[in-house]
Amino acid sequence: MHYLWHSVVLILSGIILLRIAGRKSISQMTHTQTIVMISIGTLIVQPIVENSVIKAIAASTIFVATILLLEYLQLKWDFFENLITGKAKVVIKDGVLQRHTLKQLRLTIDQMEMRLRNNGISRIEDLKTATIEPNGDVGYELHEDAKPLTVGEFKKFMKDYFPHSPHMQTIEGNSRENLDHSTDMKKNIFEEIDQ
Question: Which of 17, 18, 51, 94 has the fewest C-beta atoms under 10 angstroms from its C-beta?
Fold first, then answer.
């Protein structure tokens, strides 16, 4: 029965160690970091298993049950979400790199620029806000002048400047309800971070 408590303690220790290790998915890790993470997983399981298949199955079951419990707690209370997963961190605000946040996340400017280029962003000044999400991905919002023109905005422009075009009347009938629905559904995804 002691391996039950060992399993819980070891998985919580593993989560804490991974949180300390940083915000990188496996695809974003270097070879060294990947080897260390795999080694941590092996070391966590080793004391429980002790060459017993039944204990290995029991320990795996406990690990999965613990993950499910932690996910449930994260859904119920923000405190657990902050503790286990963390929140997105703002790394660019109004086109300016937040160097102190990059240092906290142990990211170099070159690594940040690489992530931005992978998202098709070539100028930091075009960004209103950029964040590093808990899974290591980059989230961003462009300044108004840097945003691409959407189909909805183009249709509105055409309607305002060419109101009597027969083509616009056909489009207007089909898309008015879609445009209204998408406007209602808009929400600032950076709202939680700003608070």
Answer: 51
